[in-house]
Design brief:
By secondary structure, the protein is an alpha/beta fold. The strands form two sheets. Strands 1-2 form a two-stranded parallel ribbon. A two-stranded parallel ribbon has the order 3-4.
Length: 107
């Protein structure tokens, strides 16, 4: 999807610095993730609206230009309040199908 739709991928997390740094380097996350919005780096945690506002500001995007995917519904609900399209992840297939529908309906 990233290549087909020329997408930028950003990761969000409320994890601590040591675990985040470990995962980024161990799993070579920089090879397919363009931006990291991690609470230990930006000083605010999800679902605080400020977290999402910082991400939008840094990416220079409006909420309508972003698709947010999380496995916790309350995190997605917080993003939806800012106009960010969201998907609650339950399985790879359902998330991919929902993302394709949203991407095809995006101007």
């Amino acid at each position: 999807l990233k290549n087909s739709y020329n997408l930028k991928i950003a990761a969000t997390s409320n994890e601590g610095r040591e675990l985040t740094d470990y995962r980024i380097h161990t799993y070579n996350l920089k090879s397919f993730i363009d931006l990291f919005f991690i609470s230990c780096y930006i000083g605010v945690q999800k679902p605080n609206p400020k977290f999402y506002e910082i991400a939008l500001d840094v990416m220079q995007l409006s909420g309508s230009e972003v698709l947010y995917i999380d496995d916790r519904a309350y995190m997605v609900e917080a993003a939806l309040k800012l106009g960010i399209k969201g998907i609650v992840h339950t399985s790879l297939l359902s998330t991919k199908n929902e993302a394709l529908v949203l991407l095809k309906n995006t101007p």
